[in-house]
């Protein structure tokens, strides 16, 4: 079983399973053929997964004495490039599509080009690299050289950052000062150092807001003039303009619904308060215009993830419970944790099977 140490800890804010064992790292790269028999995996329904997806290749992210993959967060870069953030290692890495390591950006620290807790990295509209680091934004050149850093951004917790062009960024996470009804998306003018607009409110009744504040996970994708977004405890896919105006919303027929939010006082302090509570984690746009949404919940053995693929008005195309963790969608290719490996740097790349 692959253990995702710290997986989704940003939106669960709970302790999780320990890291992969040292023995697991003794598994040799390339020693396991793609056609091998999969072991029984209690948190992944491999039969249902491979009935829906066809494996293209196994991908191993290169490691060395200075680079070890612990918790990869991925985005697509330039053609033939993968961008990986590893929050535990405080690094951003550029890989080729074959998993070869090209560049390592940053290290742990508080100086220029260093990170405290990087949570996202992506290419900007002018091909630079922008990294979100809990409470600041750092911009690097296209090749990975440090250019600038903006600190003291108005966020309680930064989950991610997306480039909007013209020195404007979309900040993901609860905003500072939104105590009663937090909003999770913010348009930030970095030149003026001010928020132009905050939107996507939590939307919970007062009795559920103390619990809701403990789940800050939000995911967003920018597509032209549109922002698609989801929040952890909402079963709704939201559509906004690039200026933050709400355009539409669609109910998401998740494989397992989010369920009622617990009514508690203060902050969630134990696993029992959220055990079995499904939370929306990620939204991805597919090459055919459909939307993929990943959800997760805690269990005895770790985390279970579900996958929903639907059209943009909420009609389901695929509902898959207990899927592997989805890290990236690039066109019609899906990058998942390899359910046959316990190594966090081992992925599988798959495509949807065509219905016969």
Task: Give an overview in words.
This protein is mainly beta. The protein has a single domain, classed as 6 Propeller (Neuraminidase). It has three helices and 24 strands. The strands form six sheets. Strands 1-24-23-22 form a four-stranded antiparallel beta sheet. Strands 2-3-4-5 form a four-stranded antiparallel beta sheet, with no helix packed on it. A four-stranded antiparallel beta sheet has the order 6-7-8-9, with no helix packed on it.
Concise structural overview:
The protein has 356 residues and is mainly beta. It is 4% helix and 41% strand.
Report the CATH superfamily: TolB, C-terminal domain
Q: How is the biggest beta sheet arranged? A: 4 strands, antiparallel
Bin the strand percentage: 35-45%
CA-based gyration radius? 19 Å
Strand order of the largest sheet: 1-24-23-22
The CATH topology is given as: Neuraminidase
């Amino acid at each position: 079983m692959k253990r995702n140490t710290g997986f989704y800890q940003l939106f669960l804010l709970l302790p999780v399973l320990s890291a992969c064992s040292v023995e697991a790292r003794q598994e040799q790269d390339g020693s396991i053929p793609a056609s091998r028999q999969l072991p029984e995996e209690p948190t992944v329904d491999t039969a249902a997964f491979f009935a829906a997806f066809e494996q293209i290749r196994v991908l191993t992210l290169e490691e060395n004495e200075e680079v070890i993959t612990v918790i990869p967060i991925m985005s697509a870069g330039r053609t033939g490039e993968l961008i990986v953030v590893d929050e535990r290692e405080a690094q951003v890495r550029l890989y080729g599509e074959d998993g070869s390591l090209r560049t390592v950006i940053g290290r742990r620290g508080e100086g220029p080009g260093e990170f405290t807790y990087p949570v996202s990295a992506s290419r900007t509209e002018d091909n630079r690299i922008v990294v979100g680091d809990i409470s600041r934004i750092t911009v690097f050149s296209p090749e990975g050289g440090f250019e600038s850093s903006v600190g003291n951004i108005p966020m309680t917790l930064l989950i991610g950052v997306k480039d909007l062009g013209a020195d404007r960024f979309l900040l993901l996470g609860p905003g500072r000062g939104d105590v009663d009804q937090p909003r999770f998306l913010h348009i930030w003018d970095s030149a003026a150092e001010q928020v132009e607009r905050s939107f996507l409110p939590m939307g919970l009744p007062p009795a559920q807001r103390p619990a809701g504040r403990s789940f800050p996970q939000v995911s967003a994708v920018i597509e032209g003039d549109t922002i698609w977004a989801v929040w952890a405890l909402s079963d709704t896919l939201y559509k906004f303009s690039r200026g933050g105006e709400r355009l539409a919303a669609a109910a998401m027929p998740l494989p397992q619904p989010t369920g009622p939010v617990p009514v508690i006082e203060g902050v969630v302090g134990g696993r029992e308060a959220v055990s079995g509570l499904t939370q929306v984690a990620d939204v991805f746009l597919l090459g055919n215009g459909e939307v993929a949404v990943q959800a997760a919940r805690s269990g005895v053995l770790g985390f279970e993830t579900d996958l929903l693929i639907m059209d943009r008005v909420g009609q389901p195309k695929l509902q898959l419970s207990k899927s592997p963790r989805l890290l990236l969608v690039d066109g019609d290719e899906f990058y998942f944790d390899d359910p046959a490996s316990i190594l966090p740097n081992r992925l599988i790349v798959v495509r949807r099977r065509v219905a016969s």
